[in-house]
Design brief:
The chain is mainly beta. Helix content is 4%, strand content 46%. The chain starts with a strand and ends in a 7-residue tail after the last helix.
Length: 206
């Protein structure tokens, strides 16, 4: 039996079984097995959630989850924030004036008070990587496009390809890079194809 292929586009609207729940903002991939493990869904005014791929149902006009809104809100947050520690003498390796988020309070005070920066961390499983919309894709001889999503096998969530927009603003088109042509994931996607080979690929049809 041939597995059905499904494209999942970053930026898609996401619905639970009983209502809209947000926007798909990131994809989480296990590069060791080329498997899509989670999607990150950001509600409009609430914390983003790390959604296991098994919870993703139909992908038609947007992405549909098999859970309710109540169950969605109990899923693990996709990030957390905390105050970064501040050395009394300044941020290690920086001057006080160089530290983002360093605030001063009071007028005509002999010693300014410092407000520690707030740092946000992504919560993803160890050894996995995040794909974001617009991340650079690099051919073997230079930049070739920007990540827009993935193509997955519906039976086991294995990656069949990565969706890229390549070309100039006035002649942009979407192509599916076969997973066998992906050299590595990381800060974007690196390909084993040249720019000309990518340009010779047909436009994505799914």
């Amino acid at each position: 039996m041939v597995s059905e292929l499904t494209s999942i586009t970053i930026g898609s609207d996401v619905r639970c079984s009983d209502g809209a729940c947000g926007t798909l903002t990131r994809l989480v991939v296990d590069p060791s097995f080329d498997v899509l493990t989670h999607v990150v869904v950001a509600p409009e005014r609430a914390v983003s959630r790390l959604v296991p791929i098994e919870t993703v149902g139909a992908v038609r006009d947007g992405v549909e989850l098999t859970c309710t809104l109540g169950a969605f809100n109990t899923l693990e947050p996709a990030e957390w924030t905390e105050e970064a520690p501040i050395d009394p003498g300044g941020w290690p390796g920086y001057q006080r004036s160089q530290i983002p988020g360093w605030c001063y309070f009071g007028i005509m005070m002999g010693e300014a008070a410092a407000s520690p920066p707030i740092v946000t961390y992504e919560r993803i499983p160890e050894g996995e990587v995040v794909l974001r919309r617009g991340q650079h894709a690099h051919a073997s001889n230079g930049a070739i496009g920007h990540v827009q999503g993935v193509v997955v096998r519906s039976d086991d969530h294995r990656l069949a390809g990565v969706l890229l927009d390549e070309g100039h603003l006035w002649s942009k088109r979407r192509v599916a890079i076969p997973i066998r042509a992906i050299k590595e994931f990381g800060d974007g996607v690196r390909l084993m194809l040249t720019k000309d080979q990518v340009r010779c690929l047909p436009a994505a049809s799914i």
